[in-house]
Amino acid sequence: MKVNVIGVPLNLGCDRLGVERAPNHLRERGLMQLIRKNGHRAFDLGNLYVPPVSEADKFARGKSMKYLDAIVEVNNNLAELVYDTLRGGAFPLVIGGDHSLGLGSASGVGKCFDDFGIIWLDAHGDINTDATSPSGNVHGMPLSALMGMGSEELVNVYAPGNKVNPQNVFLVGTRSLDEGEKALIEREHLSVYTMETIHLKGIGFVADDIKRKLRERKIRNVHFSIDVDSIDPRFAPGTGTRVAEGLMPDEFNDFVDHILSTNLVKSLDLVELNPELDNGEQTTKLCLEIIDRITARI
Question: Which residues of 209-226 are buried (b: 16+ CB within 10 A; e: fewer)?
Answer without folding.
Answer: ebeeebeeeebebbbbbb
